[in-house]
Amino acid sequence: MLLKWQIQRLLHQTQHSLASPSRNPRATVVIGRLLGIAFLICFATGTYSHFIQEPLPGMVFLTRPIWLYQVSQGIHITAGIICFPLLFAKLYTVFPGLFQSPPVRSFPHFLERASIALFVASSLVQITIGLLNTYQWYALFPFAFRQTHYALSFVIIGSLAIHIAVKLPIISRYWLKRDAVTADGEIAGHEVVDDPAAPDELQRLTGKRQYAGVTGRIFQWIDSSPAPRPQTSRRGFFATVAVASAALVTLTAGQSFRVFDATNLFGARKNDVGPQGLPVNRTAKRAKVLETATSADWRLTVSNGESTKVFSYDDLRAMTQYEVVLPIACVEGWSQYATWQGPRLKDLIAAVGAEPSSTVRLTSLEQDSSYAQTTMQPEFVRDDLTLIALDLEGEPLDIDHGYPARAIAPARPGVLQTKWLSTLEVMS
């Protein structure tokens, strides 16, 4: 019994020493709702990105505005980066709760703490691998990023929903109220009481009978000495979180939004940097197409059932050329507008008797890539802005941008803008 109360005293002393004006229910709720909004934005935009890459039967996607995927994925990455300071701030506000006594009061309390642990752990893994993905540092985690990232998003949203349901009374109480902190910096509502049932061992150990009521049912010993005066005020705490979030946006969002381009110091890509002034993710050398893409024997084969037509590079040049201004918007968050020229995709498939409302499978010369073969839905195929691009910014495509021919379509992820095209197959 004495050891039990010694442990409880140690836990409470630790909790008491961590007291701060910013560590209170109101601060937790304020940071928590910002973090919740950021996670919901990431979930919505991430789900959209997942299904545009792997659509379910019957799914149809918008091709306008042309910047839809660019903005959606840019917001996804930026919101994910902001989750770092928000999540750490949330953990800071609740850190003393790790030392509550007793650590586990009941089986439901154990489940509550376990769900919180799952939420925190999965959130940290999710935003960390998401950040590493923007730099394409896949070697740092030995699992498939896209599938893991997608699965974890549901774990996070599910555990977040459970956490909100459990904490709803506290959230409701502190949603609009000012910080529940006294002028002395103590959390209000934790009053000191005298418990006539105090165990003899505790009285003999401490010489005191003062207890703090928690939820009106559980009593634990409280040191009568005041906690050290915190060095950081509530205002300073929130200012620090705001400055950290603003700094991250300012220093990285330029890869997604040109307005921040001048301050883009840490983004994975920089505007106007790369072959023909456009960044690339996967080079021709890495895709192992240097020989096949530049071969004089290269041909683009277009098929529709038994109808097949083969186009040489000169044949494609001889077709009516169209010019479009479209962004390359990659799943890693970076994007940039460029001017593309080439024949329309719907004109090419019309040459083999296919309707503009067809679904087309595009195959690349690229090797060792899950995106060497992609599928383009009818809403993109029939769009007048969808080209088989031969030129970029008025010049033939650089080999790293997909020479001799690549696909370019509005509001579509960069990984689906297939480079180094080999075949176009009408599927339906």
Features:
14 strands, about 425 residues, alpha+beta, 5-stranded mixed sheet, about 15% strand, 13 helices, 4-stranded antiparallel sheet, elongated, 2 domains, Sulfite Oxidase, Chain A, domain 2
The biggest sheet, with number of strands, parallel, antiparallel or mixed sense and barrel status, is: 5 strands, mixed
- DSSP summary, beta strand count: 14
Query: What share of residues are in beta strands?
Result: 5-15%
Q: Given the C-alpha coordinates, what overall shape results?
A: elongated
Helix fraction by DSSP (H/I, runs of at least 4): 40-55%
The domain count comes to 2
Structural class: alpha+beta
N- to C-terminal separation?
A: 76 Å
pLDDT below 50 for ≥5 consecutive residues: which ranges? 184-225
Organism: Salinibacterium xinjiangense
Protein name: Oxidoreductase molybdopterin binding domain-containing protein
InterPro entries: OxRdtase_Mopterin-bd_dom, OxRdtase_Mopterin-bd_sf
Transmembrane segments: 30-51, 71-95, 116-138, 150-170, 236-254
How would you characterize the overall build of this protein?
- This is Oxidoreductase molybdopterin binding domain-containing protein.
- Keywords: Membrane, Transmembrane, Transmembrane helix.
- By secondary structure, the chain is α+β, with helices and mostly antiparallel strands.
- It folds into two domains: 2-247, no CATH class; 284-426, Sulfite Oxidase, Chain A, domain 2 (Alpha-Beta Complex), CATH 3.90.420.
- It is 42% helix and 15% strand.
- The protein contains 13 helices and 14 strands.
- The strands form four sheets. The protein has a five-stranded mixed β-sheet. A four-stranded antiparallel β-sheet has the order 6-7-11-12.
- Helix 3 packs across helix 4 and helix 4 (107-134) runs antiparallel to helix 5.
- The radius of gyration is 29 Å and the shape is elongated.
- The relative contact order is 0.13.
- Residues 184-225 have low confidence and may be disordered.
